[in-house]
């Protein structure tokens, strides 16, 4: 970066810039410095909060290479997204990942690496949260979730209902009733899930 001129438009080129040490290209990675490691997350998170999920799509922040992410909608949306999937992994719109872009493993007293959490307990945590709600909060959640799922495609609806049933049988059953799901099918799918 060469600082050789004043910006043409202060708002577009200064106020909207989203600098963060985590903006790195493949092949360059940060050191293990604890202060830097904290800032890798916090700076990018602050910029997303300040400018919005689409900050990286603004001309001042756009990378020169195309980015394959699911960011869409929200503030400052440039309107280039297609489809409705904004999460990953997704069976509806799978996204490839480049294994060569993974961080290297550096020997310390052990290794540091990107890897999945061994035991996430997604269903247990969701069930605990549901049971912690008051009866009115449970009713509102069940009605809202059920109405939203009622318009989903059949396979997706039953997959999500099985997740809810695995978290709490009452929760899954109540949402399935409103979403017009097949409870027998939901139970069978839930039986195959591991927490």
Structure description:
This protein is mainly α. It folds into two domains: 7-79, no CATH class; 122-191, no CATH class. It is 43% helix and 2% strand. The protein has seven helices and two strands. The protein has helices at 10-15, 34-51, 122-132, 135-149, 154-167, 169-179, 183-191, and strands spanning 106-107, 111-112. A two-stranded antiparallel ribbon has the order 1-2. A hairpin with a 3-residue loop joins strand 1 and strand 2. Helix 3 (122-132) packs across helix 5 and helix 5 (154-167) crosses helix 7 (183-191). The longest helix is centred in the first third of the chain and has 18 residues, at 34-51. It is globular and about 65 Å long. The termini are far apart.
Short description:
This protein is mainly α and 195 residues long.
Write the layout of secondary structure elements.
Layout: H1 10-15, H2 34-51, E1 106-107, E2 111-112, H3 122-132, H4 135-149, H5 154-167, H6 169-179, H7 183-191
Antiparallel strand pairs: 1-2
């Amino acid at each position: 970066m060469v600082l050789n001129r004043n910006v043409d438009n202060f708002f577009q080129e200064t106020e909207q810039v989203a600098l963060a040490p985590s903006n790195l290209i493949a092949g360059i990675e940060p050191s293990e410095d604890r202060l830097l490691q904290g800032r890798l997350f916090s700076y990018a998170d602050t910029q997303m909060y300040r400018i919005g999920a689409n900050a990286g799509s603004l001309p001042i922040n756009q990378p020169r290479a195309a980015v394959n992410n699911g960011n869409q909608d929200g503030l400052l949306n440039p309107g280039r997204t297609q489809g409705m999937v904004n999460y990953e992994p997704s069976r509806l719109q799978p996204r490839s990942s480049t294994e060569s872009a993974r961080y290297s493993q550096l020997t310390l007293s052990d290794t540091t690496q990107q890897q999945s959490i061994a035991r996430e307990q997604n269903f247990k945590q969701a069930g605990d949260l549901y049971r912690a709600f008051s009866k009115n909060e449970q009713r509102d959640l069940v009605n809202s979730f059920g109405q939203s799922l009622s318009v989903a495609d059949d396979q997706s609806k039953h997959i999500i209902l099985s997740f809810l049933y695995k978290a709490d049988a009452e929760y899954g059953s109540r949402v399935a009733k409103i979403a017009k799901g097949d409870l027998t099918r939901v139970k069978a799918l839930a039986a195959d899930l591991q927490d």
